[in-house]
């Protein structure tokens, strides 16, 4: 009897810590420090993890339990989020200021989460205080379990590529600009894994080295602050195989657009004369022309890369149609498996009735002469107490009101500055329309979920537009971009209980309020739907010192 009790207690402990005993654990210890980096050739203060920028790669397999003990050696509170990792039943570890207390300077905190039923390419990054402008990000890649078929041959090797726009001003200077009510303006250039190459430079450190005849997987993420990019390989085409956790139809591309916050995997075969080639990244839809290159080397190859770069796709109006057509070519491979043995397409999302339509419009505002951004007339602010903790301790009334933000954009350009929380209903099948009436491109991301990116179109959304949705093989992913004066639609089932951040992927916009939270509460308060608050959870604000509510059972 006693031993049976022990087993039960052990099982409950495992469940409540968000892990199942049979899945392997991977342990990491990370020191977060300042250190000098020069992504654009100019030394500046960067944020390093174990001395590295980009930070260490997390290489894992579906269902692994990840334990990361993060030591904050900065002089400011710090948090990391694992963007695209769904954190089933576990918004406690999501790393946003609405769900967690930040790790104070000199302290450490151990994240514990499971990459449950996921495969694919993701990244982690700091959510606090514009730290992302200084680094702190890295690749998180999830392999399929051995017995699950992968719809392409195992590549000879894999290369992680984190790229994006970059500012030579440090994050503290950029933050001072935003706090004073101004925009940080345009970036200084583009970095590729911490470097920025120019055509003709002598290169000692190639981005990748390939053996002739072999095929390689490149996992590429845009970790920039605001700029969409296009990337391409000189002399080589790319076969798209994966996008933010879904296996795609394997189309071949000369070049690919990648918007801020997005990741994808391409296969590249070393089938050209053995020498160096350029990997080219250029800014898209930006008022500033920016291009960087990195070198792709052939093992035992001879000769430098040709100075003639493959051209970028068109810009402006023609560029938007080009990019939109490319988006429409991205399809879910219905017969391929992802993390589970059954085909991805066995989930027929197009046949589910929509229970709620939420239309969200981004806007730019002036509040007391200072720049703010927001959604549907609400510019979100983080307080001392994380929203999730206030809600869990029954103290939400002291911290926020549900539904300050409405399901429809308001008329006019008025704005409220307040914590922005949507009261969402557990298991609703929702349609979210993103309306972008501004002149700049947007990217959005939702924590805790993947969604079906069913449409992007120019103009304004109306219910008739639903007939244009891709209800068959839209890619299930966690980001969507919206071109200027356009809209986008996504669909998902809100079956992951927790407090989940929906945010602009543009660092300046999210910092100045273009984000909100979905509170998805299971009425059952049951372990079936949500894990208990971890015993190690940091408490802060008004919930510090309060007695813990009765645990879920
Ligand atoms: C982190 O820093 C501590 C000293 O502050 C050191 O003992 C430890 O080895 C470091 N860990 C890693 C993984 O670098
Ligand atoms: C990453 O994980 C995969 C699957 O577990 C393994 O085959 C591969 O060798 C790992 N790569 C690295 C660099 O650790
Ligand atoms: C901080 O690190 C120590 C030493 O590794 C560890 O024992 C402790 O659990 C960590 N604290 C938290 C809150 O994760
Ligand atoms: C889809 O995946 C299957 C594996 O199930 C693969 O054989 C097929 O080539 C893929 N189709 C396309 C169009 O990429
Ligand atoms: C949230 O919405 C549900 C209905 O879906 C309602 O029962 C509940 O009272 C609402 N909660 C708050 C705090 O408004």
UniProtKB/TrEMBL annotation:
Write the signal peptide boundaries.
Answer: 1-21
Q: What is its EC number?
A: 1.10.3.3
Q: Pfam families per the record? A: Cu-oxidase, Cu-oxidase_2, Cu-oxidase_3
SUPFAM superfamilies from the xrefs? Cupredoxins
Q: Which domain of life is it from?
A: Eukaryota
PANTHER family membership: MULTI-COPPER OXIDASE, OS01G0816700 PROTEIN
This one is known as Multicopper oxidase
